[in-house]
Write a structure and sequence with these properties.
Layout (H helix, E strand, L loop, with lengths): L1 E12 L5 H6 L1 E11 L15 H12 L6 H15 L3 E10 L11 E8 L2
Antiparallel strand pairs: 1-2, 2-3, 3-4
Helix pairs in contact: 2-3
């Protein structure tokens, strides 16, 4: 199985349930893994794989839509990847809120979602 990775992809966006988050925004970091079963080996042409630039453009467009829950963001991105890329068999999307609005909290919070084609 071939895996396509987009790692540590950073965005500034307005996701969150608190009004300050929707007003001030926050930094987010995404990791995406897409599994592809190649039809032939070796993989010699882009049509036999998934173009990570196209995946990035899909994710960028979705990140521009302010959303209260990160769970909504990751599930919609995963569904969109499977819908747009027929070679994708499975996808995992993880998103971290880099500076969560939690008093005296050091670290990140995030969610992950894995979806397989049926």
């Amino acid at each position: 199985m071939l895996q396509i990775h987009l790692k540590n992809v950073q965005f500034f966006a307005y996701h969150g349930i608190y009004s300050e988050e929707r007003k001030l925004g926050n930094f987010f970091e995404l990791n995406i893994d897409i599994w592809v079963q190649p039809v032939t080996l070796p993989v010699l042409h882009m049509k036999e794989s998934i173009d990570y630039v196209s995946v990035y453009e899909l994710v960028k467009k979705r990140m521009e839509i302010a959303t209260p829950l990160l769970e909504t963001v990751v599930t919609e991105i995963a569904q969109s990847i499977l819908a747009q890329f027929s070679l994708a068999n499975k996808v995992t999307v993880s998103i971290d809120k880099v500076r969560p609005p939690i008093v005296q909290f050091e670290g990140r919070v995030g969610v992950s979602f894995t979806l397989e084609r049926k």
